[in-house]
Every structure is written in structure tokens, then in C-alpha cells.
Specification:
Blueprint (H helix, E strand, L loop, with lengths): L1 H11 L3 H41 L2 E5 L2 H4 L9 H9 L4 E15 L4 E9 L1 H7 L6 E4 L9 E5 H7 L6 E7 L5 E12 L4 H6 E5 H7 L8 E6 L5 H15 L5 E5 H4 L1 H39 L1 H9 L4 H37 L1 E2 L4 H6 L5 E2 L5 H27 L3 H5 L3
Parallel strand pairs: 3-8, 5-7
Antiparallel strand pairs: 1-9, 1-10, 2-3, 2-6, 2-9, 4-7, 5-8, 6-7, 11-12
Helix pairs in contact: 1-13, 2-11, 2-13, 2-15, 4-9, 11-15, 13-15
Length: 412
């Protein structure tokens, strides 16, 4: 084996230019895959974080089946007890309570069905980005009562502006008619059309009075200090909730259960990205295939002589396989190093999306995007390159097995 390694190393540099070009192609492919996958995964984290901080939070405590039925009678009866559990979990950054009711909202011209949400203005500002998304008017204050925030698309459909009145008609938790008049204090735009088209926010305490909630809420919303710790936070919250909920009436849901559409969007984006990566790897694979085929054709007489003097085809094939693996590993290692350095730089300094800061801010997204170097982004791309290069090298190597010494030595 040491002799075969020595032969493989010397044979690689017999045509240094061709070997260097092949190594550079592998380096480029690996480097690009490491960076692009890190950028994709980093953008997913930002997208998820932005989405959960607009409305759902990382984790929610709800009544069992509330997410499916949205029945106003399915409540968290004692949100204070849940708050006490949350305070003992170190990875939770902020939390708040909300109550919801499907209601009819009327302006002087039009009527629409909306999801009316009661929020605690101060706690909501710590959990969600709603306060920063207000485009006209002002955010709710703790002392407000009959004030409302509504989405920009809903305001346009209702033909209302700041200071206009909205008549609200719905059903209370006890089956009574819930009615009130709200004054538009602010109009927000989250970039999520569904949310902006049917959402109205009002102070939680006033909501509880109007809809006869008797101090109960529908959601206790939690935001953690890290997306990676959401699973752990959910488990700790579930354990605490079980201690106060002997009848199993409460459920703890994470953002993946609350917003399955985000997971589907990420999968779709991964598939489209995978197509581009496959094209890149195929180009590199043909480059490597060409290198090894040329090496086989140029050295056919040499292989014939080696077989004639007693070298077995299997040993010759191992030597050629070592050549291909050496070139591949050199390219992959250098590609990982260069890709990691580039990714690390932009992970620290960010990538400025020039000319799009205003557009991104409308959707609550930062103007700088940060790649996230991870074991997954390092291993997926390099693993694919390694497998493809090995498969590409097999075909030329197998040609050696069919060589006949006399024919090989007389080949032109």
C-alpha cells in the first residue's frame, strides 16, 4: 500500500496543470456550496424569527383543540399561573397573553369579518415587532381602552384612516352579544397579506370586558432567546403546564405546529436551490471525468507494461483510485477552509442588500443578511461533492480492468 500511495502521488503531478485545474474546480464547487448553504440556512433563521415575532411567537400555550376550532370558549382560564411557570424558564426572553374573537367590523361604508385580538400593549411590544410595523398613527398605550390597530389592507378595504370609528359586533364567551365602538389609532403593515387583511388589535383588558372573558385568554405567547432552544423551552413549559393542568385541557405548541406554511416554503426553496447545486456539481463531475479519462488514455501503454510484468489489474485499479481520491480530498479540504473563512467573515459583518433596505424594512426584515456556518452546511455540500467525484472516477478506473497487455502496449 505505501508503494501504491507513492505511485499515486507521483502520477498526480506528472501533468501538474491538469491536476491543478481539477483541484481548483473541486475547491470552487465545495467553497460555493459551503457558502450558499450557510447563506440559505442563515436566511431561513431570519425568516422564521421575523415571522414568529410578527404574531405567533416561538411557543404558545393554548386550550386543547383551540388551534383547530378557534372556539372563543376554549380558553386558558388562569394565565397568571402560566406566567409563573414561564418566569422560571431561563431561555425565555419575553411573553404575553392574547385573546381572540371572530367579529364583524363596520365602517361608514363597508363591513368585513375579522379576527379581533386583545393584546397587552407593553408585553406585546417585547414579544412581537407589531410596534415597529405601525406605518400611520401610533401604537397602543397601556392606558388605552377603545382604541384599535388594524392592518393596512383592511384599512383600505374598510376605507378608514386614523381617527375614524369602527363598530364591532361579535359573540362573547358566555354566548352574549359583544358590541363596542373602536377608534383607529394606528395602521400597520407586516408584509403578510392575510394578517394585514383581517387583523384588528385592541387592548386586552377592554377586550376581556367586551367579550365577557372573566380574566381568561386564548394564547400565552412566548419568545425564546434562541431558535435552537425552542424544543428545550417547549419541553420545560409542557412539564410546568402539566403540574397546573391535571385535566389535560392545555396544549403547548411550537412555531412549526403554529405555522406549517413556513416549513413548506423552506422545503420548496431547498428544492429550487438543490437544482442549482446539482447543475454545479454535474459541471464539476464532467471536469473530473475528463481528467481521469485523459489520464487513462495517455497512460494505456504504461498500464499494459505494468500488467505484463506482473502487476494485477486490481492493484492497478487501487492505485488509480488513490489518485482520484487524493485529488478529491485536496480539493474538498481546501474548499472547506476557503468556504468557511468567507462564510465566517460575512457571518460577522453581514451581507448588505443594497438598494432594498426600505423594501426589507416593510416586511420587518433587516437590511443585512447573515450566513450561519453549521455542521450541516459544511457536511451536505462536501458530502455530495465527495460522492459525485468518487462515482465519476469509477468509470475510467473500470476501463483498466478490461485492458489486455499486448493490445495496451501497442496502442497509439
Amino acid at each position: 500500500m505505501p508503494i501504491e500511495i507513492k505511485m499515486a502521488w507521483r502520477n498526480i503531478w506528472r501533468n501538474a496543470r491538469r491536476s491543478v485545474l481539477t483541484i481548483l474546480a473541486i475547491i470552487f464547487a465545495t467553497m460555493l456550496l459551503v457558502f450558499m448553504l450557510s447563506f440559505q440556512f442563515g436566511s431561513y433563521d431570519i425568516m422564521i424569527d421575523t415571522a414568529v415575532k410578527i404574531h405567533t411567537g416561538h411557543v404558545q400555550v393554548q386550550a386543547e383543540d383551540y388551534r383547530d376550532k378557534m372556539d372563543i370558549r376554549l380558553v386558558v382560564p388562569d394565565p397568571g399561573a402560566v406566567d409563573d411557570i414561564i418566569k422560571d424558564i431561563p431561555d425565555i426572553e419575553a411573553y404575553t397573553s392574547r385573546a381572540n374573537a371572530f367579529s364583524l367590523v363596520s365602517s361608514s361604508d363597508r363591513t368585513y369579518g375579522v379576527l379581533l385580538t386583545g393584546i397587552d400593549p407593553e408585553k406585546e411590544a417585547a414579544v412581537s415587532t407589531l410596534k415597529e410595523l405601525v406605518r400611520r398613527g401610533e401604537y397602543l398605550e397601556q392606558s388605552d381602552t377603545d382604541k384599535a390597530l388594524l392592518g393596512e389592507l383592511l384599512a383600505r378595504n374598510l376605507k378608514v384612516d386614523i381617527g375614524d370609528e369602527l363598530i364591532v359586533l361579535g359573540q362573547g364567551r358566555d354566548g352574549s352579544i359583544a358590541a363596542t365602538v373602536l377608534t383607529v389609532k394606528g395602521i400597520f403593515s407586516s408584509g403578510q397579506d392575510k394578517f394585514d387583511r383581517n387583523s384588528v388589535q385592541m387592548p386586552l383588558e377592554y377586550f376581556q370586558d367586551v367579550f365577557s372573558m372573566r380574566g381568561s385568554v386564548h394564547e400565552v405567547v412566548v419568545v425564546g432567546n434562541s431558535l435552537k432552544k425552542v424544543t428545550k423551552t417547549k419541553e420545560e413549559l409542557e412539564a410546568g403546564v402539566r403540574n397546573i393542568d391535571n385535566d389535560g385541557n392545555l396544549a403547548v405548541l411550537d412555531w412549526m405546529e403554529l405555522m406549517p406554511g413556513i416549513i413548506q416554503s423552506i422545503k420548496l426553496d431547498l428544492v429550487s436551490g438543490l437544482i442549482m447545486y446539482v447543475i454545479l456539481i454535474v459541471v464539476v463531475a464532467f471536469s473530473i471525468l475528463n481528467t481521469f479519462l485523459m489520464a487513462i488514455f495517455e497512460r494505456t501503454r504504461e498500464f499494459g507494461v505494468l500488467i505484463a510484468i506482473g502487476m494485477t489489474p486490481g492493484r492497478l485499479m487501487r492505485s488509480l483510485f488513490l489518485e482520484s481520491m487524493t485529488i478529491t480530498l485536496i480539493g474538498i479540504i481546501l474548499g472547506i477552509i476557503s468556504g468557511s473563512l468567507i462564510t465566517w467573515y460575512y457571518q460577522v459583518h453581514g451581507i448588505m442588500i443594497s438598494g432594498a433596505s426600505e423594501l426589507l424594512s416593510q416586511y420587518g426584515l433587516p437590511e443585512r443578511m447573515y450566513p450561519q456556518l453549521s455542521v450541516l452546511s459544511l457536511s451536505v455540500g462536501t458530502g455530495i461533492v465527495l460522492i459525485i467525484t468518487i462515482l465519476t472516477a469509477i468509470y475510467p478506473i473500470l476501463k483498466v480492468r478490461r485492458l489486455k497487455p499486448v493490445e495496451a502496449m501497442t496502442a497509439v
